[in-house]
Amino acid sequence: MTVAKSELPVFNWPTTSFMLAVHLAALLALLPSNFSWGAVGVALLLHWITGCLGITLGWHRLIAHRSFQVPTWLEYFFVFCGSLACQHGPIEWVGLHRHHHVYSDQSIDHHDSRKGFWWSHMGWLLRELPKDIEIRRFARDIANDPVYHFFNNYFLALQFALALILYALGGWPFVVWGIFVRLVAVYHCTWLVNSATHKFGYRNYETEDASTNCWWVALVTYGEGWHNNHHAFQYSARHGLRWWEIDTTWLMIRLLQLLGLASRVKLAESEAP
Questions:
Q1: Can you give the residue ranges of every domain in the chain?
Q2: Count of H helices and E strands in the chain?
């Protein structure tokens, strides 16, 4: 199913312009003068910090689903890491994600996969979607926290600050790879969970949406590709339920648990058949 042109809302030009600029800037990595192994290493490290510790472990499993608990200072650290992924602020992200789980693959779902791969991957981001007051309501447990408010309002400023630090450390190669290439990689890895894991793969559970388990998405998203398992047990800190469903974020949570930093870890009621 695809969205008819007449049904599409108008472009969200600020977001569209920003995404275009970031993707074009990432192409600067093709210039030999912008390449160094140090810059590639910085990009990989920041991909893990912002994509795994920030979005996957922090914003998603810890905050959006409260599948485990950590000390407040550590929670705020994960919020900071996620803010560096530049996927809007944590209040908006968490509210939207919880909204998605309630209305997954229904018309009110912002990235309804029934509207096509492109739409659920990133097309929805580029459009002026109706303002939904429920988004903030879904995040009311964090909406009044001043730390969350700071990161929600200044996530873009943090990205500029990071760029200045990287420039001081390694010049333009560090900026091109550590900011632009890394952002594009983390963006598309995150978006594959909205698109590919509602289209490709297998299903362990008959959920009321189109969620699937997709191994190659799990590989690049630190275990988020076991999406059908996640939709079946949204509260579970572990997404890979079969022995071969490798979930590196779950391994990080187990490490935190062993260190005494993670408690009240919730798990699925049953393993996949």
A1: 10-258
A2: 11, 0
CA angle, 155 then 247 then 79, to 5°? 20
CB 75 within 8 A of CB 268: no
Contacts of 108 (CB under 8 A, 6+ apart): 132
Measuring CA to CA, how many Å separate 69 from each of 59, 78, 205, 240, 270?
12, 12, 27, 20, 21
With a cut of 80, say whether residue 149 has pLDDT above it: yes
pLDDT, tens digit, 9 for 90 and up, residues 72-101 = 999 999 999 999 999 999 999 999 999 999
Cα dihedral 172, 175, 177, 180 in deg (nearest 10):
-120
C-alpha triplet 173, 85, 134: angle, nearest 5°? 155
Say which DSSP state 127 is in: B
Q: Is 5 in contact with 162 (CB distance < 8 Å)?
A: no
Q: Are 251 and 241 in contact (CB under 8 A)?
A: no
SS3 content of the chain, % helix, strand, coil (to 5): 60, 5, 35
